[in-house]
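B., you asked whether I could sanity-check this one before it goes into the benchmark set. Here's the sequence:
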Amino acid sequence: MELRRNPRITVTWRGFLKMNEGHLMPIRAQNVSESGLMLLCPHSLPVNKQYQMMLEVPCIDHSDAPPYKVACRVSVLHSILSG
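And here's what the prediction gave me:
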């Protein structure tokens, strides 16, 4: 049973975070909601830090059209380091 105010939708979207030194870190969005998204990345991110992010969002009709490139600013609210 979903108890969150904004239910999440499972996705598989690729993207990049722009790190301080200009390095682009690959990320993958795992789920999205009206109020946020869960992403997976190769390194732990500090909470309350903001990043520039670019996501590749596929066309809703599942056509062969190229994905939309969505640029945005994100704030890290939770960070969990896993094995």
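One thing to flag: The chain has a mean pLDDT of 89. Otherwise nothing jumped out at me.
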